[in-house]
Predict the structure.
Amino acid sequence: MMTLDYARLVEGLREVTTGLAGAVAGGDPEAKVPTCPEWRLARLVGHIGQADRWAAGIVREGGPSAVPDPAEADHDQPAAWEDWLLGGAEELIAAVRDAGAETEVWSMAGPVPTAFWMRRMMCDTAVHHYDAALTTGAAYGIAGDVAAEVLTESLQLIAATEAAEAFLPRLAALRGRGERLVIRPDGVDGWVITRTPEGVRWERGDRDGDVVVSGTTAECMLVFARRLPARAVTGDRAVLEHWLAHTAF
């Protein structure tokens, strides 16, 4: 279930893509990305445009498509980066609009509405915008509702237990005995994550937990995306570290 409606997903994808394009403007294609240590900036830029176009193809065709290899996406022409990034986002937006946002298409987790792919790329781009900003020294910003959607989407993907574990077997280590992690952002509903023997369960709200992570929604999102160290933590930090160690995508 998506929290943001179709119109906001369109806006959100454009916001984060524009932010990414701004962050890489004038950047060095050879610059190493600290948070993706095997990537150069050229690969990060190439990956997002590649993935947008891959998602658009799924929306247009409806059926499965092999996940593209980011290593084949290196984009070494900085003068064309803005057009590459914005063009990919617009291609995906147009594909969803033409197909209808509720039309079902393929995903690795089963049939999903086409808007799933717009949301998926909004979330992926939001995180990689941070990677790019860290690489180039640009400022990073993200709307609170978009940051919240990134957190919600990641939990939904992880909680789709069978599909998630088939895609990333290490997620099976998140099965537990009732351990509870709480994300407690400033001023908005948080997320309560429970590790059960059957898999991860989660809900919006606030409860006591074995470990609680606090901060702005953006800070919490970046912690759970493994981009920022967790500073405002109460409770058993080992529970948090175990989660983070097994949720790298």
About this structure: The beta strands are 104-105, 112-113, 179-185, 190-196, 199-205, 211-215, 233-235. DSSP finds eight helices and seven strands in the chain. The first helix runs from residue 6 to 24. The two ends are 21 Å apart (CA to CA).
